[in-house]
Amino acid sequence: MNPLIPINAIQIRYISPIFEPIYDEEDNQVDDECVRDGTNVLHECIVPTNKDKLPRYYRLRYRDNAKEHKQRWERWLEDNLIEGRTPYFVKVKKIGRRVLFEYDSTLIEKREKKQRAMQHKKETKARKLVRQVAAEGMVPQGNESWDEFLKRLESDLDMPHRIRSGNARPRSESIPSAFEEDDDEVLIMEDDDDDEQNYPFGHDRLVGETQQGEAVYEDRESGDRYEER
């Protein structure tokens, strides 16, 4: 077990989605279809970690993928902390090929400070707008009612926020998706990455077993996995 992983951390088995191509009448690929859903990291790692405060992690096949997972979830959690309807006080780390999610209570204060700053900025702009209306004698235009006039002023006040929000995809679509190439039917057993510890006798390393109970080994030189026959 990697010493950087908390003792009480829960390991999640990571499975990526499987897609199959969709072809048109001329055998040209026009789209793809998900035939197996992958691991839902939000609901299997982040939500329960935020609720019970127990760390959760999963292990990927490649370090670069773990780095990409960490960066994408880190960005999403940061944006969601401030603008999301349901904030998650969870931080994400990369430890080797593992992606670790931990509860972080300091994010509560961070969110409150950021929201106070945003509210102060909005109120400052509102006061400026009121002074501008009073100085310029602004009134409803044409057949515009006072309610419509006030709504237009409120719309002008919220315009910068809506512009920023409009540059991003909807929250439901921006949730990071699984990596298709990360799929591994083997439930990996936790060991250190050092070769001397992983291959103490120079032989291939036992890394886990398949769903059918067959032992799975990892080739020392190539890193490929194979089942015991």
| Overall outline | elongated
What percent strand? 15-25%
Total strands = 9
Largest pleated sheet: 4 strands, mixed
Question: What Rg is obtained from the alpha carbons, in whole angstroms?
Answer: 26 Å
Average pLDDT score: 75
Question: Which regions contain 5 or more consecutive residues with pLDDT less than 50?
Answer: 161-173, 183-197
N-to-C series of helices and strands: EEEHEHEEHHHHEEE
**Number of separate helices:** 6
Give the distance, in angstroms, between the N- and C-terminal Cα atoms: 28 Å
The computed structural class is alpha+beta
Fraction of residues in H or I helices:
40-55%
Strand order in the largest sheet: 1-4-6-5
Description:
By secondary structure, the chain is an alpha+beta fold. Helices cover 41% and strands 19% of the residues. Among the domains are: 56 residues, no CATH class; 45 residues, no CATH class. It is built from 6 helices and 9 strands; from the N terminus they run E-E-E-H-E-H-E-E-H-H-H-H-E-E-E. The protein has a 4-stranded mixed beta sheet. The longest helix has 31 residues. The radius of gyration is 26 Å and the shape is elongated.
Features:
alpha+beta; three-stranded antiparallel beta sheet; 229 residues; single chain; 41% helix; 6 helices; four-stranded mixed beta sheet
Write the layout of secondary structure elements.
Blueprint: E1 10-11, E2 18-23, E3 29-36, H1 41-52, E4 56-59, H2 63-83, E5 90-95, E6 98-103, H3 106-136, H4 146-166, H5 171-174, H6 195-198, E7 205-209, E8 215-218, E9 225-227
Parallel strand pairs: 1-4
Antiparallel strand pairs: 2-3, 4-6, 5-6, 7-8, 8-9
